[in-house]
What does this fold into?
Amino acid sequence: MSTDSDRPETTAASDAADPGPQLSDQAPILLGLAAGYIGHRCVGLGLRSGLIAELADGGPRTARELAGRRGLDPYLVWVWCRGAFAAGLVERAGDEPALAADARYELAPHMATLLLDSDSPAFLGGIFPLLEQPEVFDRFERTLATGERMWWADTSPDWIQAVSRSGRPFYTRLVPGGLAQVPGLAERLGQGGRVVDTACGTGRGLVRLATHYPQCELVGVDGDPHSIEQARAAMAQAGLAERVQLVCSPLEEFTLDQPASVVINNISMHECRDIDQVTRQVRAALDPGGWFVVSDFPFPEDEPTLRTPPGRLMSGVQVFEAQIDDQLLPRAAYDGLLDRHGFTDVDHVQLTPVHAVTWGRRAA
Ligand SMILES: C[S@@+](CC[C@H](N)C(=O)[O-])C[C@H]1O[C@@H](n2cnc3c(N)ncnc32)[C@H](O)[C@@H]1O
It folds into this structure.
């Protein structure tokens, strides 16, 4: 019969028997990371050079044909093709082996949608240029010792554009599909009312809201003057200048001249420096019974989820977020936030592994 005093010895014996992972077990972890980096660069280069678009539009091509159509060097394009094949981005078309100089290549299934169709809810093509911007890893490394923070006004127009493009599928999923999952909301939006997009950025969401809810009047609020300028240009281009009011203000301070039926926030609530103060402002801006809808990245709540590709992606987003002094939040944090501020009917839905929507109603 074993006793308590036996147990440490037993554990020590089994520890000694288990030498743990071998060097040869661990090396593939690093090789996988380096290979992922190469795959990322193949995608980024393929997008910028037009090689991916060429394959999507023109169908199967040899490297020489691709190079000729884009005015590029055939040998270097062949090297890209083989790298893209290795990464699973392209497939071989025809009988020539993928490694042959005259192999024909075509995009792997659904890559055209995933990488080029910015209207698709599955669009991922914005992430690659975003992660390559200096605001992510370069600045993070430069400020690792000083920890110097920045704010949106310190970022470049290219950064704002890249954020807007990668945020687009979040709006695509939210409007109208995600909002339709909030009980009673689609009916309310169909009748009209005032909809506020807090942290509206360059205004892509406002255009989408205006298109799907023609009876509604819209307000966009953002604290970054450059983003508001871009949003104003987008409204003019979409013929919405009269229907959409734009306000440049920190969300911690924004007020409305008339109450809103719905306030949404897309991939920005975690950034607010004082989310309780922002939630107080939102509550004050809403009609009784009005909805607050938070659409955001759900930061993993456990170790296994953090190690999945979506979890790893969110840990990369954190690199930028840390520099503006915030971090992504676990989805459940928004339940607590809405409860704290007296919202009722608090609920949520997970739209994808990197996208969750949480909502509540201002008590009547
Ligand atoms: C990640 S971007 C998202 C923009 C837009 N919602 C989208 O999905 O494309 C975050 C935006 O939130 C704005 N923002 C973040 N915190 C803010 C705050 N406390 N007050 C006002 N704007 C804020 C930034 O200026 C930026 O435009």
Q: What stands out?
A: The domain at 181-304+324-362 is CATH 3.40.50.150 (Rossmann fold).
